[in-house]
Automatic annotation (TrEMBL):
Annotated protein name in UniProt: Restriction endonuclease
Organism annotation: Desulfotruncus arcticus DSM 17038
UniProt superkingdom: Bacteria
Amino acid sequence: MTSIKKISINNTLLSSYITKRIKEATVILCFRILLQDIIENGRESSMTKSQIEKQFNKKHYLYGISRFRTDYVLRQAGFDHNAIDQKNDNFFIKPSFLQGLSKKDLTQIALYIDAYWNQISIEQKQLLDEIESHLLDNGNTEGNIEFIKEMLLTRETRKKGQCFEVTSFSILKIYLRNLGFELNRFSTTYSNDGGIDFAAQLAVYQVTTKLDDKKFEEDLNKVPLKERVMVFKETTGTFDHNKLKHELVLDYISIEELLNFLEYMVRKNAERNIRDILEVMLHEFQREYYQSELF
């Protein structure tokens, strides 16, 4: 992953805000829209929610996020550490976050935000292209298998655990579909999914890269009284494995089981199953990056 050179901002409040929030797409896009309004119309300018929404929905896919939701901007207003505030129905950047900065400075900050997210957009496209290239190279079964294993075991995007969640789902979906069952994934990584990562007819699937006691209890409480299957890459050294015998845990699937399922499908029908797994991976990453909303 290529890094963008950090910009120097002669305002401590704004510098801290940008450093902390630059990776938070829903936050920084709202800020970027308000910043552009100030650059064009002066620092006293403000925008209504509907005006922000209109601009947000033109650019959301560049930030790999969904279309505008009211809480994206509402939850930022009224907190001292946030740059955005609200007066009546209008939102604006607080004057204290703009103090000492010229129009040229603000333009440079806007360009920095654009460059940062443009680089992420490039990385996302590269991954989608890579998956597509493996799909097109359907005859290279061994190479495609190694790619799936790499995505499952070692590859990371800027969202930690994203590759594992998407790839584990893709393997499980095809494995279960071949047995006549359906597995669905309605949310995306880090979304507010209520603790339901995957959904089957009789249970939910909860996914994590590293399972510890705290994570187990949190997931248990997120979906009370619902039977579930735990999917994980590894457990911490202190994790109490007796917890997996909980009455609401139907089963657990470790990285070893996922690799076994993959190996089983390769033995049964390698070309078809690997192609199907890659197709699911491509679709899920398009959803992750909200590319499907472009069409």
